[in-house]
Amino acid sequence: MCQSKKAGIIGLGMYLPENVLTNAELEKMVDTTDEWIVTRTGIKERRIASSDEATSDMAVNAAKEALKNANLTPDDIDLIIVATITPDMFFPATACLVQAKLGARTIPAFDISVACSGFIYGLTIASQFISLGTYKHALVIAAEKLSSVTDWSDRATCVLFGDGAGAAVLGPVDEGGILSTFLGADGNKGDLIKLPAGGSRIPATKESVDARLHFIKMNGTELFKVAVKIMADAALGATNPLGLKAEDIKLVIPHQANIRILNAAAKRMGLRPDQIYLNIEKYGNMSAASIAVALVEAVNKGLIKKGDKIVLDAFGGGLTWGAMVIEWSK
Ligand code: UT7
Q1: Whose CA is nearest to atom 17 of ligand 1?
Q2: How many angstroms separate the first and last alpha carbons of the chain?
Q3: Does the active-site annotation cover 214?
Q4: Reported confidence tier of residue 3, pLDDT bands at 50, 70, 90
Q5: Listed residue (48, 46, 49) closest to 281, CA to CA
Q6: Inter-residue contact 312 to 276 (CB < 8 Å)
Q7: Are residues 159 and 16 part of one domain?
Q8: pLDDT tens-place string over residues 93-127
């Protein structure tokens, strides 16, 4: 047991598959154009994992980099949480597979399924254990192989998603750390984005496969409308209790669903364009992994320095949402 302290991010890592799928290539697969995809979503390309690469493989690569960045070894980790909606399989949990591949001790390891909000939910859960002093170091990984549940014949969804993984090591910090967190969910709107079959409601059958029910189904227009409000409300839910105004925030790292959603949400929050980190152009929507990868990139580019206050801000399937204020402590 260690002394009770604030939890902070002490190491970060990411992994993106090498294979790039461009809009030009999608033009050959479905009835779409580069122009439509760029203007409606902001996406130019996305990464696609290889057929022998599962979510746990990407998660392990990101985790190894995060451990190295934190100057820790797998032996130092007391808890592993993997946020994913594309686990290797229903069970064992992808977190258990990651634990084994890393050679970590027999520490607790579990998955959480909150779609695009997964990284923020995961950091929130882990931070409770650290603040209480139950555990010292936690590995929170957000990893997705969305290409495995994408209907490559549905132009309305297949242009949006990509694969990747990001990981954070959390530990007790003397200064800064996670200052506030705000989570929410609304199961009444769960139908707006879902993967209908393969669970206990519609187990896999020939009919379910023929009906293409094992792929993501989405009502994009309705989601778009709620997303703008939810993202702005969630960010305020995390910043208001601290008395923070838009000008106090160095950078917002939002879930990368659609550039138009992000621009509208930023306007609603009174943020300048340079206060929003964007990488949707290169990777599309990677669900839980989007914020994790964006955070790693922003730190690696030197955009976040010790003492800066940043906001992570997500919404996604469930529906779920979450925002978090972190004062950077490294
Ligand atoms: O990760 C969290 C969950 N995801 C989201 O939050 C996504 C939120 N929604 C969105 O980002 C947008 O709604 C989309 C990008 C998915 C769609 O953009 P939109 O401006 O809402 O387009 P739309 O669905 O209203 O479709 C407009 C037109 C339709 O044609 P008609 O009916 O006007 O003739 C679609 O059939 O665009 C057509 N369309 C396409 N055309 C070319 C839909 N997908 C494509 C495509 N290429 N890929």
Answers
A1: 220
A2: 23
A3: no
A4: low
A5: 46
A6: no
A7: yes
A8: 999 999 999 999 999 999 999 999 999 999 999 99
Q: Indicate the top mutation candidate among 221, 222, 320 to test ligand 1's pocket, ranked by most ligand atoms within 8 A of CB.
A: 221
Q: How far is the CA of 37 from the centre of ligand 1 (A)?
A: 9
pLDDT at 249: 97
Domain count, the chain: 2
Q: Which domain covers residue 246, as residue numbers?
A: 179-327
Q: Structure pTM?
A: 0.97
- Within this chain, do residues 163 and 209 fall inside the same structural domain, yes or no? no
Mind giving me the DSSP string for 73-85? Answer: -GGG--EEEEE-S
- Chain length of the chain: 330
Nearest to 281 by CA among 34, 81, 41: 41
Pull the structure tokens for residue 221: 């227009």
**Residue range 21-63, pLDDT digits in tens:** 999 999 999 999 999 999 999 999 999 999 999 999 999 999 9
Q: Is 84:142 a contact under the CB 8 Å cutoff?
A: yes
293 in a domain, yes or no? yes
Residue found by looking up tokens 């931070």 in the block:
127
Same domain, yes or no, for 258 and 316? yes
Quickly list H helices, 133-219.
155-158, 206-210
- C-alpha to C-alpha distances, 80 to 72, 199, 291, 312, nearest whole angstrom: 14, 24, 18, 20
Q: How far is CA 280 from the centre of its chain?
A: 12
Query: Residue 35 is which amino acid?
Result: E
SS3 327: strand
